[in-house]
Amino acid sequence: MRLDSREFRNALGRFPTGVCVITTTPEGGKPMGMTVNSFAALSLDPALILWSIQKNSECWSVFENAKGFTVNVLASDQIDVSNAYAKKGEHDLPEGSFRIGKSGNPVLKGCITTFECNMNAQHDGGDHIILVGEVTEMDNSPTGEPLVFHGGQYAELR
């Protein structure tokens, strides 16, 4: 059975997700980030997370060669941050919008949770690559609401 790709994408959009910006610094380059909603927990021991990136993404070569990255879980008031790093060609992090974490990777300011990770593995996933990170540092705010995406638009928790 062959699924209609638009219908499949719409069906997947019925599942609400959080919104993250994945950040890293390419060797010899500037700190950069890209918006994703494909983040998930993988293992508690060891502490592993995963996210995926399209093979044809303009950011793929950066993450393919990255030694690590940070998953920045956006707060509900960070729609502008999500939109900024979801655009093609718009991935450089402006000065003052981040700090360098203990891992050496950029950590965005104002997020409700951040996970600094070493690259653990990369797996083929159809038209995506699944990246697995081992969490080495974490910052978790006790307050704040997450930015949620559902049905092709931002949503609020009720």
Q: What is the H level of CATH, i.e. the homologous superfamily?
A: Electron Transport, Fmn-binding Protein, Chain A
> Strand arrangement, largest sheet?
3-2-6-9-10-5-4
Q: What is the 3D shape?
A: globular
> Could you tell me the number of beta strands?
12
The main pleated sheet reads as: 7 strands, antiparallel
Mean pLDDT: 93
The sequence of SSEs as H and E is: HEEEEEHEHEEEEEE
Sequence stretches where pLDDT stays below 50 over 5 or more residues: none
Q: Radius of gyration, Cα only, in angstroms?
A: 15 Å
**Helix-residue proportion:** 10-25%
Terminal-residue CA separation: 37 Å
Structural class comes to: mainly beta
How many domain regions?
Answer: 1
Q: In the CATH hierarchy, what is the class?
A: Mainly Beta
The number of helical elements comes to: 3
Kindly estimate the percentage of residues that lie in beta strands according to DSSP: 35-45%
Fold-level CATH name: Pnp Oxidase, Chain A
- Return the CATH architecture: Roll
